[in-house]
Structure formats: structure tokens, C-alpha cells
Amino acid sequence: QVQLVESGGGLVQAGGSLRLSCKASGRTFSLYPMAWFRQTPGKEREFLSTISWNGAITYYLDSVKGRFTISRDNAENTVYLQMNSLKPEDTAVYYCAAQTTRIYSAWRRDLTGDYWGQGTQVTVSS
Questions:
Q1: Which is deepest, 11, 34, 43, 94, by most CB within 10 Å?
Q2: What distance in Å separates the CA atoms of residue 47 and residue 81, rounded to the nearest whole number?
Q3: Which has the closest alpha carbon to 77: 36, 34, 42?
């Protein structure tokens, strides 16, 4: 079992920054890829960014490329999402996810995460 706990969400003005954290417990965090998603009411969960098991491979949704940065600290069992130049349309609940079966691999976008956090709310005011 893997438990994922997000933190760092909140209310920020447009143009501001937030850093989200997702701390994992359970099985060995350093072995598998992680990802961030977000969801707004009435819409499907939207993929944002992924990072491979060792941090060497990252991937971003076009609309956040250049503004968001994913990183991980395997010693702290934590993945981060640094969000800069935030826009009102970034308002959502943000989730982290793990693909724990993909050991020593990058995230596969045609597969869903097998563990998810509970989400953290990000609200960007105009």
C-alpha cells in the first residue's frame, strides 16, 4: 500500500506562486514515476505533469509548460509541483498519483495512476 498526501494549496492572486508537495509512504517511493493532475467541478481530471523514478524524464501539459516545474526528492519521499505565474484558470483541486508497478520507469500516459492523494485546493483570484 502507498499513501499519498498533498499539501501546499491555498488562495493566491493571479501572477503569484505556490509549491505543492506530495509525500508518499509505504512502498519504496524512489522506484516509480509520479504525476500531478487537477480537476475542476464538472470536468474530467486533467493531466498536468509527470516525472520518472529518478527525475531524469519530465513531461508537461502545454498550457503549464514554462510556468510549472515538477521535481522529486527521493530521500524525502516527496514530489513537488512549483507553480509560477498562476492564472485564474489554474483554480482546481490538484492531485498527485503514482504508478507503483512501473519500477525504474517513466510515467505511461495511457495508464492511470494506481494510487492517488486526496487532493489540495488551489484558488487563483483575478
A1: 34
A2: 13
A3: 34
